[in-house]
């Protein structure tokens, strides 16, 4: 895992008056936090204090913000390689367009001239963005990245951008870097993360609004018109050129320019908490950018119930930060897709039935969801489209309604990360950890010599996932056969203990911690196992002649729903692996079982030693649905991101 310099590009400010306000912020909004969240993600407001991504990076990842009067001047005067790589740099591209750094223009004594001047100033301040040019901002970003690399000695940088800042970054990567003999983007940028960037442009519900934006571009907004994006995202073209006779999609980053496996898009689905612009954009948006325009095709993504900006914005949210930090610093990626689905003809035989799924991904220890797609947020997974994409010979077109894969995220070797303040879990209280009273120290365990370096793909994978503290602890595990399907003894004991407690606990206090070994097993295992939960809810929508048919509808009742719980890490007997369980089959409360019972067989990819694969049958109730069929499975792909370099 590399901790490289972070270069941040802010979003669209608006007319000159807003630009003048923007430049007053030393960090262009990357320092903004929030004090509001919504109950259960999308309910009533409640107090939740998020300090902002900048402070969180300083506190959790030990990054530094170096200013000393001017970041630009600091870079210009510093010796090569003298600045820390773990540093944050703000691309202040709006400064040159601000009027606050210039002396006031002299005023004529003529009253009529003053009225004319006042009118011109009013138009300039509230309807124009004079001095801002997106391609100039992209060229300045290129110069900044080169300077940061040179002064920190870092091989590459992380680019993080909000809204229009993502288009500035893409202009640099796709056009500036490809012209005049400059260094290609893939040699400058390690990872590229965007919040709420209109990769496919901004499209309003009314044709008149789209025409006004494209034709007149008030306050420079014509850069968001999809046809005009062609000019600043294509080498050799100029702003205003159109993709006439060219099959061009603004959401595509050419593979020759940058690997989309290193791109992550955070997509907001809360249009209700944004400004009046939401009235012109409508649902299936964050209030300004439509969901289908907020991603790069083929890139990683997460859906969060946050708006484009403001008190409930994506950048200043816990959800946004958790996804950002995992993408930048996560050791490995996990992607899940549906496998062995029935042929497309099965669902095509029922053209009036559309199968949809809601999904949520949660991590133990976090108060927020990593990603969620729901019908109530206008973005469920369209299973009919999933089946069509998986059909033999299909192009497998990526979309937000039927993503490839179904869901994916980036994970630390231990959740919450081992290098953050320690936590301990109190069984019987809930599945969220509480701050530890006293963290264990190295002195509390007998000293042991460091484990010798181990050879073989499996050993390297276990070591890379386990972290340094796990590499230093020798474990006598027969790794020659890593696909051991047996249930660890402690897990079997925990299952038995929970069952015994349930049988003997009639009349006992329901809130008390269970007697026996289950509670202690949970407390011990939770220190070494990371727990993830994937919630799936499947239902059908029936229409007749284009109208919803409610004759057999059971409102808010799904045809199948369950939660897949996955534990990853080392069991109490030192065995590394993954264990799963469907919530419907777990006896009692989830947090009373320290480890799921079913071992997940992890199979190495014969073509790539850093890729592990696994499959898991859907429960019988799910496989009875025609949309899944009797052979349906979840297929997991686990990639060691550290090995990518």
Automatic annotation (TrEMBL):
Residues 134-211 form the DUF676 domain. This is Pimeloyl-ACP methyl ester carboxylesterase. Residues 432-450 have a biased composition (Low complexity). It holds the Pfam family DUF676. InterPro entries: AB_hydrolase_fold, DUF676_lipase-like. Residues 415-450 are annotated as: Disordered.
